[in-house]
Amino acid sequence: MYGVEVFNSNGVFVPTTPNLNQFSTIRKDRDGYNLGSTFGGVMHAATGRDIKLVVNARGGTNINAWAAGASESYFDEAVVRVNEALETPGTELAGILWHQGEGNRNSSIYIDRLSTLLADFRGALGESDLPFIAGQISQVRDDNVNFNRNILTLPNSVSNTAVAT
């Protein structure tokens, strides 16, 4: 996609395709579709700026696996990937796009855990007010309704955040 690039497995930004998860260092055996390419295209069209994505995704995870210090090390891997990408001249960190939650659809404390995780990402990346956009999960499943309603409250409790519906 013109104007949108992804940080690949060789540490180089290349044009995106919908299959961004192929470049994740924590992906499952199968590569999955990632909405980041579509989001990047919309951002590019709206701003006219080139968009560079760093993807480190693993479908079906619980937010606990993303916590700083968790045994899965997803948090650490994401921070390493971002810092590697930032070594590319002309690259700056503009925000985090977060699309996770299927593994937490019934959690009453998800926003608290997400708030802690975001504070940890902001601290590790040295950006105390780094923009953060969370996405709702599938609206075709009835058991996702409460999660999607809950995630909309994120901007009320954490500064410089938004939710993509």
Textual characterization of the structure:
- The protein has helices at residues 36-47, 74-86, 110-124, 145-151, 154-157, and strands at residues 4-7, 13-15, 51-53, 96-98, 132-135, 161-164.
- With 165 residues, it is of the alpha/beta class.
- It has one domain (4-164): SGNH hydrolase (Rossmann fold), CATH 3.40.50.
- The strands form two sheets. It has a three-stranded mixed beta sheet.
- Strand 4, helix 3 and strand 5 (132-135) form a beta-alpha-beta unit.
Helix content: 25-40%
Radius of gyration (Å) = 15 Å
What is the name of the CATH architecture? 3-Layer(aba) Sandwich
**Number of DSSP E strands:** 6
| Distance between the first and last residues' Cα | 23 Å
Query: Unreliable segments (pLDDT under 50, ≥5 consecutive)?
Result: none
Q: How is the CATH topology named?
A: Rossmann fold
List keywords for this structure.
165 residues, alpha/beta, Rossmann fold, 5 helices, globular
Question: What is shown here, in short?
Answer:
With 165 residues, the chain is of the alpha/beta class. It has helices at 36-47, 74-86, 110-124, 145-151, 154-157, and strands spanning 4-7, 13-15, 51-53, 96-98, 132-135, 161-164.
Please describe the topology of this protein.
Elements: E1 4-7, E2 13-15, H1 36-47, E3 51-53, H2 74-86, E4 96-98, H3 110-124, E5 132-135, H4 145-151, H5 154-157, E6 161-164
Parallel strand pairs: 1-3, 4-5, 5-6
Antiparallel strand pairs: 1-2
